[in-house]
Structures are given as structure tokens and as C-alpha cells.
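Structure in, sequence out. Go:
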């Protein structure tokens, strides 16, 4: 079943009063709060000045029970999350008008920087215009996840969605596995790179692809999309087993790396660190982070003017820029593994492993993981 209907016109305040009845983060949605503050203020500007804004699409579960209604709420946003969040934030006092805001009906009014509460007190008529603005909302009635995912992709086809966002909306088992992997504590606590455009899911997809392949593999968009197709077409449980193996390694990586680890400031080396942890004996894993701190310190030192050049580290630097290529992955890992073995052999009972003598941005103590999940917003559209 798949139907789309124009919902009865409802005001902004009607939707705001029911915001707790709306699932703002269903599985097919991209990560939240991608708009910049100026983008959000511009939307409020458009509403107050009477301009039309794009339709909002909402999965409407008031008509019938649906297995898609995971949170058992009447509504879930399909497209328009950023618009609804911006509106709700303004009414909740978390957002103000732009400093250079101009009210089209009377440009002499000084409204720049005012909050919704300010408007209510000083310019109640203008506040009322905002409150009574009717949002154009389409009701999506279906119990087929594929239809909702397809609608999301179609609505955003002309927008610059990332590969991770498109894969997240694809059909089949693999997008679910990727979301599960990206929800692991390693990604919610240890990484330091931004996740607002699905970078965590992109990294998770790479690990799943490599584990499914049983070796290093091309991790460009085409190959990552292919594993989604493989998960749809394959009758075996190979992808599921690969996902379980990824999770097992990530459990160890969560112990190896610290919270918001500077070593994990970019996606690139995650595949290398994953393989290093996976192939290292349990008794030696305690030395991995210490080695990586020393390795990164040395790698950066060799690039300083007048420093002694290490051809192997220079090669690593060059190849690190193209870690989506199999050959670069293999060679970089070979260098990393070789140096790790040398690092371990340099330690002895009389000279236990120590942190680098010089202080570095990576040599910080490992605190216990907090329960708070990071939010790493990036600018985008909805």
C-alpha cells in the first residue's frame, strides 16, 4: 500500500504543540541539524514575510498500524526535518531573527535579532502572522519501507546528498547493518571526525565491505553501493556474518582508542587501524595506541623543514591521501604493521613501552567513556 494525500492545513503552532508526536529521526533520515544558523534564520524570514516554503512530507500512521512505526508515534518526517526543527527552535526561543532582518510590510521596524518572545511582547501582530502560517504538508500512508526510502531519494535527487545518505535510503538488509555498525560505541564515542553528512555510516560501510571481501578492497562509492546490492540479491548470510565480525573488532577498538581520539580526526586511517587491531595478538593490543601516537609524531616531524627525510614515511604520507584504493591500503598497512613489529621488538623487560618523550596532541590519558553521544553537525539542506 502506498498513498500520498494533501493534509488538512494546519498552522505552525498546531504542529509545534504536537512536536512530541513526531518522530524526527526515522532510519531513512540523514543526521540532524545540518543547516547553518543563517539558513534557519532565512527560513523564519521567509515565513514572516509571507513567502512560500517547500512542502513537508510526513509518514502518517494515524490511518492504520504499520511495522514502520518503530517509535509508536502518529507521525514521522520523511522530508523537511530541517524546516520543522528550525521552526520549532524559533518558537522555543533557541533561534532569533537575523540581525539584518527586514519586515517587508514596514521596513522601518527594527526587528533584527529579536526572538519569538520579543515579537509576542512588542509586535504581537507579526508574531500572530508567524503562528497562523499554514504549513503545506503531504501525508504519506504506507507500510512499505522501500516506498518511503524511494520517496526520500526522489525528493532529494536534485540535492547534493552524500553517498552515505543515499545508501542509507536504499532497500535491503545492508543499510540496516551499516546503521547498526555506525551506532557502535566506537563511532559514538571514539571518533573525532564530523558525522553530520553520514561520515560515520560511510566509514562503517567501508569496514563491512572489507570484512565481507575478506581482504582490503576498493572503498569508493561504486563499490560501497555494490555491497548494498549484494545484500539484496544474496540468499546467504555472508553479509550478516561479516557485520558480526566488524562489531567484534570494534569492541576491541573501543578499548584501544580514547574518547574523541585525535588519532581518529579523519575517516581515512580507520580501515588501517581496524586491520591492525584485528591482526594483532591480544597480548600486544595494549601497545597499539602508544605505537600510533609515536608513529604520528614521527610522521609529522619528518615533514618539518630541515628534518631528516624518511622515504618510507614520505611514501605513507602520499598513499594516505588515496586510501579508497586497494593498493594504497595494502602498502600503507604493510608500512604500519612493519613499524609496529619494530616498535614491539624495541621494548624489553628493562625498557617497557613508554609514551613519546615529547608531549604531543595524541598523548593524553584515556578517560572512561561517557554515555553522551556526540553531535557533529555540518551544513546541508532538507
Amino acid at each position: 500500500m502506498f498513498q500520498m494525500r494533501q493534509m488538512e492545513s494546519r498552522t505552525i503552532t498546531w504542529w509545534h504543540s504536537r512536536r512530541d508526536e513526531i518522530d524526527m529521526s526515522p532510519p531513512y533520515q540523514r543526521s540532524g541539524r545540518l543547516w547553518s544558523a543563517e539558513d534557519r534564520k532565512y527560513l523564519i524570514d521567509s515565513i514572516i514575510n509571507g513567502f512560500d516554503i517547500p512542502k513537508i512530507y510526513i509518514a502518517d500512521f494515524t490511518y492504520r498500524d504499520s511495522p514502520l512505526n518503530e517509535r509508536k508515534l502518529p507521525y514521522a518526517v520523511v522530508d523537511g526535518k530541517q524546516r520543522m526543527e528550525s521552526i520549532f527552535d524559533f518558537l522555543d526561543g533557541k533561534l532569533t531573527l537575523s540581525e539584518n532582518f527586514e519586515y517587508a510590510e514596514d521596513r522601518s521596524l527594527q526587528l533584527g535579532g529579536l526572538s519569538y518572545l520579543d515579537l509576542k511582547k512588542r509586535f504581537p501582530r507579526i508574531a500572530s502572522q508567524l503562528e497562523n502560517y499554514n504549513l503545506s504538508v503531504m501525508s504519506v500512508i504506507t507500510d512499505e519501507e522501500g516506498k518511503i526510502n524511494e520517496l526520500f531519494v526522489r525528493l532529494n535527487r536534485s540535492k547534493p546528498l552524500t553517498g552515505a545518505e543515499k545508501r542509507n535510503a536504499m532497500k535491503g538488509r545492508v543499510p540496516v547493518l551499516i546503521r547498526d555498525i555506525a551506532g557502535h560505541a566506537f563511532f559514538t564515542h571514539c571518533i573525532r571526525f564530523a558525522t553530520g553528512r553520514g561520515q560515520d555510516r560511510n566509514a562503517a560501510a567501508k569496514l563491512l565491505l572489507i570484512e565481507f571481501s575478506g581482504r582490503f578492497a576498493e572503498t569508493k562509492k561504486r563499490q560501497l553501493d555494490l555491497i548494498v546490492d549484494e545484500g539484496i540479491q544474496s540468499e546467504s548470510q555472508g553479509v550478516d556474518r561479516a557485520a558480526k565480525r566488524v562489531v567484534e573488532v570494534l569492541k576491541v577498538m573501543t578499548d584501544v582508542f580514547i574518547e574523541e581520539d585525535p588519532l581518529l580526526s579523519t575517516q581515512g586511517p580507520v580501515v588501517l587501524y581496524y586491520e591492525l587491531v584485528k591482526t594483532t595478538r591480544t597480548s600486544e593490543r595494549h601497545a597499539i595506541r602508544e605505537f600510533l601516537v609515536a608513529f604520528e609524531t614521527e610522521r609529522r616531524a619528518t615533514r618539518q623543514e630541515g628534518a631528516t627525510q624518511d622515504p618510507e614515511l614520505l611514501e605513507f604520507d602520499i598513499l594516505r591521501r588515496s586510501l579508497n584504493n586497494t593498493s594504497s591500503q595494502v602498502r600503507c598497512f604493510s608500512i604500519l604493521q612493519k613499524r609496529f613489529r619494530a616498535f614491539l621488538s624495541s621494548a624489553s623487560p628493562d625498557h617497557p613501552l613508554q609514551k613519546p618523550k615529547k608531549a604531543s596532541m595524541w598523548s593524553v590519558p584515556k578517560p572512561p567513556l561517557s554515555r553522551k553521544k556526540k553531535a557533529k553537525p555540518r551544513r546541508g539542506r532538507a
